[in-house]
């Protein structure tokens, strides 16, 4: 979804194809046959998407148990956990 929000449809298709292959042939994601057939693993987060949209980094925070982060990436961490 983040690749679509970043206006990168090619990467979105690649990530969807990778998910479909690993979810079916890879026994629900236990195995990673997508890498074996040449579909690379790229990751993106909500923090990357917010950056593309121009959201400023914000303050540098030191969060207990989560470590160092910025305000923008803090939102990304909590969105991924929820």
Task: Describe the model.
The chain is mainly alpha-helical and 82 residues long. It folds into 2 domains: 43 residues, no CATH class; 38 residues, no CATH class. A hairpin with a 3-residue loop joins β1 and β2. α4 packs across α5.
Give a count of the beta strands, DSSP E runs of length 2 or more: 2
Sequence of secondary-structure elements: HHHHEEH
**Beta-strand fraction estimate:** 5-15%
Strand adjacency order, main sheet: 1-2
Describe the secondary-structure layout:
Blueprint: H1 2-5, H2 9-24, H3 33-36, H4 46-52, E1 60-63, E2 67-70, H5 71-81
Antiparallel strand pairs: 1-2
Helix pairs in contact: 4-5
Can I get a quick summary?
A hairpin with a 3-residue loop joins strand 1 (60-63) and strand 2. The chain has helices at 2-5, 9-24, 33-36, 46-52, 71-81, and strands at residues 60-63, 67-70. The chain has five helices and two strands, in the order ααααββα.
Provide keyphrases for this structure.
single chain; 82 residues; mainly alpha; 2 domains; two-stranded antiparallel sheet; 5 helices; 2 strands; 10% strand; globular
